[in-house]
Design a protein that fits this description.
By secondary structure, this protein is an alpha/beta fold. The protein is built from eight helices and five strands; from the N terminus they run E-H-E-H-H-E-H-H-E-H-H-E-H. It has a five-stranded parallel sheet with strand order 2-3-1-4-5, with helices on both faces. It has a single domain, classed as 3-Layer(aba) Sandwich (Rossmann fold), CATH 3.40.50.300. Phosphorylation of dTMP to form dTDP in both de novo and salvage pathways of dTTP synthesis. It is an enzyme of class 2 (transferase). GO terms for molecular function: ATP binding; dTMP kinase activity. It catalyses: dTMP + ATP = dTDP + ADP. It comes from Acidisoma cellulosilyticum.
Length: 220
């Protein structure tokens, strides 16, 4: 199978939007539809990326300069795209990824205030300007999303709460950035309200993905 049948789909959104659960449900349903699906996430996706994930998301006291944070996120992405995502898409797989460069634009750009042209230039120079075919943006007011995410972290005892510990206005800026990205390239985004019950959100996303895939794979 060639590139024509492979697609790269990213799930983005603020903390607590339900990306992981929605992605998992979509992957299961698309596999049942007969698609060859690979799921992955950022930071992560490779052994090197998982080591960087532990450093970047842990709330155990790491204090990163915002420039260092950006460069580490980008380094993890270079490994991920080169070793996992591009080969999978080229082989014909449907790659579903939990976060990608949209999150860097939103968190390190919108949230931290790093210049967006710098983030885009790094993406161009080191990631080959490789963008998703489709981004599913799960949109939720940050206050509600943070309540969900902090509850999940407490229930799971997961040490990945570094960004959840940031002030609400940081997350408001990140949300504004996500929505601005969707407005800038609406043909590459599917914006879904993540506020309703999870089952409803999963159904909405799956219906949208099936329609998009049918059109995308037909037109090439």
């Amino acid at each position: 199978m060639g590139r024509k049948s492979g697609r790269f789909i990213v799930f983005e959104g603020g903390d607590g939007a339900g990306k992981g659960s929605v992605l998992a449900a979509a992957a299961e349903a698309l596999r049942a539809d007969g698609f060859d699906v690979l799921t992955t996430r950022e930071p992560g996706g490779t052994p090197e990326g998982m080591e960087l994930r532990a450093l970047l998301l842990s709330d155990a006291g790491h204090v990163w300069d915002q420039g260092s944070e950006l460069l580490l996120m980008t380094a993890a992405r270079v490994q991920h795209v080169t070793r996992v995502i591009r080969p999978a898409v080229a082989s014909g797989q449907i790659v579903l990824c939990d976060r990608y460069v949209g999150s860097t634009l939103a968190y390190q750009g919108g949230g931290r205030g790093i210049a967006l042209p710098l983030i885009r230039q790094l993406h161009q120079d080191f990631v080959g300007d490789y963008w998703p075919d489709l981004t599913v943006l799960l949109d939720i007011p940050p206050a509600e999303g943070l309540r969900r995410s902090r509850r999940r972290l407490a229930d799971s005892a997961t040490d990945e709460g570094r960004f959840e510990g940031l002030a609400l206005d940081f997350h408001e800026r990140a949300r504004a950035s996500f929505l601005a990205q969707a407005e800038e390239t609406p043909e590459r985004f599917m914006v879904v309200d993540a506020g309703p019950p999870l089952a409803d959100v999963q159904a909405d996303v799956l219906a949208g993905l099936r329609t998009w895939l049918q059109t995308s794979l037909t037109t090439g």
